[in-house]
Amino acid sequence: MRLFVVLLALALVACGSPKPPLVISELEVTRPIPGRHMSAGFFVLTNNTDEVISITGVDSPQFARVEIHETTVTDGVSRMRELAVLEVPAQGSVVLERGGKHLMLMQAQDIGDSVTLQFVSGDAPVLSVDYVFPKDN
Amino acid sequence: MTPRNIILAVALAIALAAGVFVAAGNQAPVAPRSALALPAPKPVPAFSLLNQYGEPVDQSVFEGQWDLVFFGFTHCPDICPMTLQVLATAKKTLAEQGHETLPRIVLVSVDPERDSPEILGQYIDYFGDGNLGLTGRLEEIRKLTGGLGIYFEKQPGDDENYSVDHSAAVLVIDPDGGFHSLFSGSHVVEDFVHDLPILMGDR
What we know:
The structure holds two protein chains of two kinds.
Chain A (H helix, E strand, L loop, with lengths): L1 H14 L6 E8 L9 E9 L5 E3 L1 E3 L3 E12 L2 E6 L3 E3 L4 E4 L4 E8 L5 E8 L2 E9 L5
Chain B lengths: L2 H24 L9 E8 L4 E3 L5 E3 L8 E6 L6 H18 L7 E6 L7 H9 L6 E3 L3 H11 L3 E3 L9 E4 L2 E4 L4 E6 L5 H11 L4
Parallel strand pairs in B: 4-5, 5-6
Antiparallel strand pairs in B: 1-10, 2-3, 4-9, 7-8, 9-10
Helix pairs in contact in B: 2-5
């Protein structure tokens, strides 16, 4: 049996496991500034499928409310608007970064050392990820 | 080439190199690369607001030091902390470079409904010591922003969840309380580190 498992593992390594449909990278969640109860989330979402993936919501047990926002600076004026949908293009990526699209995490509940983000498309969860705050932050 | 000519050639090369070196030395940066200076400083308009300790202050609060003034709000998770962090890092860098004239960082709230002096104080203290926060009655904030060409507008939303559009500029106020110059674009530390000593006359 053990030999079989080892062989199976080797076979999987040899074949290369299929890429997960949705991958998150460069994740950063800011700690709430003292006195404030909100954070921002920045990351890159990569879609390895041939279909657009539409993120319609993000949940986090550590925050009562999470919204997808976009900051734009046009004619010297900074504006922030909620996005109903975050589209991750087929075989492509979407970047959430400072001064652009970002997650706004509101009404922090009880933040310890980590934050969990659950991405939802329609009614279906599509990705869950834990972010651990750096020790020196 | 004779030995004499070689010596002449070497001497010429050294002279040329020295000339280039001197010329380069004379090309120390004298012009800001990002900030736009007003032709003449414009006095900050009269206003009556509260500092982060709840103490009443007027336009004279801008006298006596160079100020970097940003207009924002503490419920802004993205561009406001990013800008204040850029200003704080630039100030720290200037101090590390040995500059004696360092600006004070000022946040004027464009969301006085939610930004009490106490909340504003906690927020700006996060970005270093000696910062100033101003909040108060909306019409008094409008006196200040209107006179400086700063736009802001509250957007629709519920009581606790709304955004405020606001000018992204950082204004430089001179020690006489005059609107001296502004950084308008996307703010990067290097621009402030390069331009502020020029603007403040501390090169």
